[in-house]
Write a structure and sequence with these properties.
The protein is α/β, with parallel strands linked by helices. It contains eleven helices and ten strands.
Length: about 325
């Protein structure tokens, strides 16, 4: 009987081993086809540049498997993001979104997906905003700007990128927190706003540091402060808005990699590990620094928590400043 039992156990073990081996053989390799990183904004921006860095390095990391970037702009990122939300949850369609990703439900009556239709993989980086003024304005710091705005209500024009854009939200938050009032002059994008700002037709702008620094270095704009919780490592001599006298003012733009919600947890963890490793490579950080972007490279869990907190914070701001959904 003992001999028979040993034979049965051996046969069972062999069968189990064979089944496991067969399962491994049948498990599809990843990636098994080209991977696309959907960027729901036009080419050339920080999200697009970051996506192209990741695509190149992921391809090499995955043995030359093709990874490409697809730009699909429209409706403040909604058009391209919907493609990610509706994609097969197999890791072959990812998205790289910016902070405006979490504001669309507050700004629009109809968005063709829910935030729960996607899962965060990592926060890639943060880009600080810069508060800049035309040098013709007789102010040298934030407190002087506040005093000038209060003494001249409605006289200052602030350039923005249109309804619900980061520059507009950052400007509205400033006015709300300082009790000032400026005339909002919207443009179709940040770069489109710069010519009038440089000529003095508008006087103030809140924009990503990377976008305004060439003009600051040329002496055509004056940088008063940055919006992060701490000073930018790229501009250590420039105070934060809080240091400059606006307590509680913290705003920045950030990027995040997302995947369809039903992507297997193990695959999300693998994607996170590979992307975080790439983001932490010294040459990646150097290339991101050109964008004045500080690499974050968070865990998937921290990314989810951060994006949820940003959604709550920015939704409240949108409501507090009175921007109705359209």
């Amino acid at each position: 009987m003992q001999s028979t039992r040993r034979t049965l156990l051996a046969a069972t073990a062999a069968a189990a081993l064979g089944a496991a081996t067969g399962a491994q053989a049948q498990a599809p390799a990843y990636p098994s086809k080209p991977v696309r990183i959907m960027v729901p904004y036009p080419p050339g921006g920080a999200s697009d540049v970051t996506a192209r860095i990741l695509a190149d390095k992921l391809s090499r990391r995955w043995g030359g498997k093709p990874v490409f970037v697809e730009n699909k702009a429209g409706a403040n990122g909604v058009v391209g993001t919907e493609t990610v939300a509706r994609a097969e949850p197999d890791g072959h369609t990812l998205g790289l979104v910016a902070s405006s990703h979490v504001t669309n439900h507050a700004l629009m009556k109809k968005v063709p997906y829910e935030m729960s239709d996607m899962v965060p993989v990592t926060i890639t980086a943060q880009v600080q905003l810069g508060l800049v003024v035309n040098p013709s304005l007789p102010v040298r710091n934030v407190q002087e700007l506040i005093a000038y705005a209060k003494a001249n209500p409605g006289k200052l024009s602030v350039a923005t990128s249109g309804r619900g854009s980061n520059p507009q939200l950052w400007a509205l938050a400033f006015q709300q927190m300082t009790g000032t009032q400026m005339v909002d002059v919207p443009y179709k994008g940040s770069s489109a706003a710069h010519p009038d700002l440089l000529s003095g037709q508008t006087q103030v702008m809140f924009d990503a540091v990377a976008a305004v620094m060439p003009h600051v270095k040329a002496g055509k704009l004056r940088l008063l402060a940055v919006g992060g919780a701490r000073r930018s490592p790229f501009l250590p001599d420039v105070p934060t808005m809080q240091e400059a006298g606006v307590p509680g003012y913290v705003n920045a733009s950030w990027g995040a990699v997302i995947a369809p919600a039903r992507t297997p947890r193990a695959l999300v963890e693998r994607l996170n590990a590979d992307i975080v490793a790439i983001l932490n490579e010294p040459d990646t950080k150097e290339r991101m620094a050109v964008l004045s972007a500080e690499v974050t490279a968070s865990s998937a869990e921290d990314a989810a928590a951060y994006m949820r907190s940003e959604e709550l914070r920015l939704t409240k701001l949108i409501r507090d400043v009175g921007i109705p959904p359209e």
